[in-house]
């Protein structure tokens, strides 16, 4: 069970305010290495060149949505096993089912409390010591 400070995170959301809120929540939980991008294409290129342990991505984004991003990550031999948590503004059953079929590790419905984010991360990584 890795300590939060050892986990590298990429936050992907087209809304700067949401990226800032997630970054703050993660830092409050002890995460030190938190990067963010406004779009999936840039995030995909970034995590391919400098790998992370966890991707937290919005679903509804221009250019490439969260499902397309998840699919691109899962198809890549190098980053394919990266933990992926999807954020969505709705609990749309179809989106959740597609994400599950593509291998999402967890999902979180916005708006959410920092405790919910911590819970979703701990369900994958174990206790954040």
What's the gist of this structure?
The chain is α/β, with parallel strands linked by helices and 129 residues long.
Which labels suit this protein?
129 residues; 5 strands
Can you characterise this structure?
By secondary structure, this protein is an alpha/beta fold. Helices cover 43% and strands 19% of the residues. The protein has five helices and five strands; from the N terminus they run βαβαβαβαβα. A five-stranded parallel sheet has the order 2-1-3-4-5, sandwiched between helices. Strand 3, helix 3 and strand 4 form a beta-alpha-beta unit. Helix 3 runs parallel beside helix 4. The longest helix has 13 residues. It is globular and about 35 Å long. It starts with 7 loop residues before the first strand and ends with a helix.
Overall 3D form: globular
Helix content: 40-55%
Q: Going across the major beta sheet, what is the strand order?
A: 2-1-3-4-5
Q: How many beta-strand elements?
A: 5
Distance between the termini: 7 Å
Mean pLDDT: 94
Strand content: 15-25%
Helix-and-strand structural type:
alpha/beta
What's the main sheet like?
5 strands, parallel
The total of helices stands at 5
Give start-end ranges of low-pLDDT stretches.
none
Radius of gyration: 13 Å
What is the helix/strand order? Answer: EHEHEHEHEH
Layout of strands and helices, then pairs:
Layout: E1 8-12, H1 16-28, E2 33-37, H2 40-49, E3 54-58, H3 66-75, E4 83-88, H4 93-102, E5 106-109, H5 114-125
Parallel strand pairs: 1-2, 1-3, 3-4, 4-5
């Amino acid at each position: 069970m890795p300590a939060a400070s050892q986990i590298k995170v990429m936050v992907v959301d087209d809304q700067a305010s949401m990226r800032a809120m997630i970054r703050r929540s993660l830092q409050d939980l002890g995460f030190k290495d938190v990067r963010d991008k406004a779009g999936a294409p840039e995030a995909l290129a970034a995590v391919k060149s400098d790998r992370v342990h966890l991707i937290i991505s919005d679903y509804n984004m221009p250019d490439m949505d969260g499902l397309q991003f998840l699919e691109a990550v899962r198809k890549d031999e190098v980053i394919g096993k990266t933990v992926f948590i999807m954020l969505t503004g709705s609990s749309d059953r179809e989106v959740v089912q597609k994400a599950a079929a593509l291998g999402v590790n967890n999902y979180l419905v916005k708006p959410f409390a920092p405790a919910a984010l911590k819970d979703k991360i701990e369900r994958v990584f174990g206790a954040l010591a």
